[in-house]
Amino acid sequence: MAITDWPADERPRERLLARGAAALSDAELLALFLRVGIKGKSAVDLARDLLQRFGSLSALCTASASAFSAIPGMGLAKYAQLQAVLELARRALGEEMARRDIFDSPAAVRDWLRLKLGALPREVFLVILLDSQNRVIGSEELFQGTLAQTSVHPREVVKLVLAHNAAAVILAHNHPSGVGEPSQADRLLTDTLKQALALVDVRVLDHFIVAGNASPVSFAERGLL
Predict the structure, then answer these.
(1) In the chain, how long is the greatest CA-to-CA distance?
(2) Residue 59 phi/psi, 5° resolution?
(3) Cα gap 174→151, rounded to integer Å
(4) Nearest to 113 by CA among 90, 80, 136
(5) How many CB atoms lie within 10 A of CB 221?
(6) pTM of the model
(7) pLDDT tens digits, residue range 3-40?
(8) Share of the chain above pLDDT 90, in %
(9) Which of 21, 53, 167, 183 gets the most CB atoms within 10 Å of its CB?
(10) DSSP characters for 36-73?
C-alpha cells in the first residue's frame, strides 16, 4: 500500500507536522528524505530495508558512494543529497557554537562532535579553537590514526593555537571501537597537551571521546582535567 493510501494520522509527513520530527522513527524520517519508494515497496519499507542492510542509521549516513548507490532505488544523486543534509546539520550546529559562549550550548557541541566523528572508521584527533569569550573560531583535524591508536604531537597543537590566536581549546577524538571510556593513554595525552598549552597561556576546557551515537564522554565532567 502506498503511503498516500495510509490513514492521514499514520503518514510520516503529517505526523511530523502534527507532533514534531522527534516523534518519528528512524525509518519514517529516512522515508521523508527518500520521498518515494520503489516498485512493490513504499518509502517506509525501503527505508527499513536500508537500515537493515547497513545495520544502523550512522552506518548508512557514512556509507561510501559506491555502497549506497548499489542499493536498488538509490544512486549518486540521492547519495549527494544525503551528504548535503548531514553537512547542513554540522554547519548549523557550528553556527550555534560560534554565536555563544561554548558553555551556553553544551548540547550543540556534543551533537556536532557526534556528526563529525561518531561514525568514522579511523581514529581522528580534532581541536576546537575558542576566543577569549569561549566562542568557536574554528576547528581542525590534526591527526589521523588506525583503529587502535593515533600519534598526537603537542608541538603541532601549540602551532595551531598560536596561528589562530586562540585563547582556549576543546580537544576531541573518536574511538571507532565504540567504547567511549578514556584509556590511560588518553589521560596521559590530555595532561601532556594541557601542560604544553599552559606554557602559551591557552586553556584546555575539555577533552571529549566520541564513540558511535552515544553521548561523547567529557573529561571535565569526569574530573579528569
Answers:
(1) 67
(2) -65, -35
(3) 13
(4) 90
(5) 11
(6) 0.72
(7) 656 665 677 888 888 888 888 889 888 888 888 877 77
(8) 28
(9) 167
(10) --BTTB-HHHHHHHHHHHHSSHHHHHT--HHHHHTSTT
Cross-strand bridge partners of residue 127: 140, 171
What number of helices (H) and strands (E) belong to the chain? Answer: 9, 5
Could you give the dihedral angle defined by the CA atoms of residues 206, 207, 211 and 216, in that order, rounded to the nearest 10 degrees? Answer: -10
Cα end-to-end span (Å), the chain: 56
Which pLDDT does position 22 carry in this prediction? 85
pLDDT, one tens digit per residue, over 79-129 is: 999 889 888 888 888 787 777 777 777 788 888 898 888 878 788 999 999
- Dihedrals phi, psi of 172, to nearest 5 degrees: -155, 145
| 88 burial via Cβ count (<10 Å: 0-12, 13-18, 19+) | exposed
Q: Which residue has the cell 559562549?
A: 101
Q: Which residue has the cell 576546537?
A: 128
